[in-house]
Amino acid sequence: MEIAGVKVSILNDDGSSYTKYNHEVKLILGYDPHGLSVTVKSSSNEELLEFPVDTSTEMCRIGKRGHCFKLDYETLLFTLNDEFDSRKFTSLLAKVKSGKDLSVFTERTDDSSAIQYFQFYGYLSQQQNMMQDYIRTATYQRAVLANLPDFKDKIVLDVGAGSGILSFFAAQAGAKKVYAVEASSMAQHADTLVKANGLGEKVRVIAGKIEEIDIPEPIDLIISEPMGYMLFNERMLETFLHAKKWLKSDGKMFPTRGDLHVAPFTDESLYMEQFNKANFWYQQNFHGVDLSSLRHAALKEYFRQPIVDTFDIRICLAKSVRHVVDFLTAPESDLHRIEIPLEFHMLQTAMVHGLAFWFDVAFLGSVTTVWLSTAPTEPLTHWYQVRCLLEQPFLARQGQLLVGKVLLVANKRQSYDVTIDVRIEGTNISSVNTLDLKNPYFRYTGQAPSAPPGQSTTSPAEAYWSQLDAQGARQAVNMVNGIAVNGVGDVQMEALTVNGSSTPSGTALLGLDVQSGGSGRQASRNVQLVSPLIYGAGSSTAQIPQQLVLGSSYPVSSNLMIGDYVTPGNVILPQGMDAYRS
Known about the structure:
Number of strands: 30
Structural class: alpha+beta
Number of helices: 11
Radius of gyration: 35 Å
């Protein structure tokens, strides 16, 4: 909430007062785990003062528009310009003073978690990290601009607006009004961007939490990017669903649905990597201290960490199971406890080391549907994929039925406790593990994932050389005497004039204009050649413009390059041409 046109005075102990600032200021009311955070800013957005307001704060209302606060070092009187703003401020302060919970958000969230969360998203560097995810940002923009009727002259609500990028997309699509709600300090930066882009009349930035602010009119469409790792982490999806209290009965939500995919995987390397980390605690003489009593606890901790990285889809041992959430119809309570039944028909025999997770979201517009996917088969996003390891992996055979469940239980740390429980149907083979989604291991290194071992059914070396040979056969053109080899090119032979005499085209050695008919592409390059040429019994030295065919890659063939490979556009052939006499 922002209140402009406020005058600030300092009250002395004797009741006298004097002006603290010689200009009007604005109050920014933000989140504080115990109540409110009040920030005083100048008209140029310079921060002048900040203080918290909670149940222990001494405060009172003076007249219709005055509010007095006794701080540690001074007593301040804030005189508001508008009586309506004063009543709202009074109501908000009364809730804080009474100690009532401000929202369902505070009921479900630990104070320390909320502080860390909003501080994290208040940094421009974190907003940049998300905005630079091209797949994420460009997909959202296309979903908006490809469904213009859903935005044209509509009232739009941007939940968790951050920098406001989705609000800008809505404005680009012709939205009548956009309410950009952001609870972190990023709201001020978003407001700066809105004004700098001339959208102050169309986009209104509201600082605060969806659960605590008011929207003055019904909403036609809610847009947000509320997805976390494994779709549900950070519990912002609940805030997204909470915003439906302002949505019209025929309103839309972007995204409209979310699909969480689960598949069993095998990865011995990853399993041993986590297992071996605990060996540090196996030492019995670490600077004279026996650490071995903690190895079991360390092992448990490492296997409670979900792994955030990417992988080759071929490590998945069965078709993924999909859990669908319809954001238009699902209530918030559906996300408090999520149980996903599992049934996998094993496609190959391998060790089952755990379950892999990724998600897709769909924007179901009136014109077209656009999907944003984090699947391992798609371009990588900042969500990557997530894998949950079993502490006790087991062998499953092709054709066997793997059953079980995934249970996600929401916690007050804005995350979930994840239990994976799998077993082979008809046997006593099973494994269970519980993981802490709040504490993942970020393993991604920037390198492309390697294929799982044992995928080659032929000799890789022979396959590579055979591919190279086939490529060379398609591209090779023998330039000697104008003869095309292997039928890959048609050569136009021309007569050459050397020292005033005409040479039959059939005996021309290098004066060629070669056109490739096999590939459908022609690429020629003029080359100045200086070399002794042999014509029958006589010899002459001449400068002859030459044209060499260069394919889609360079060099085309060793037949075209005499001696060492050279840079394209700088081809100089050596002097000795006796090898081409015939």
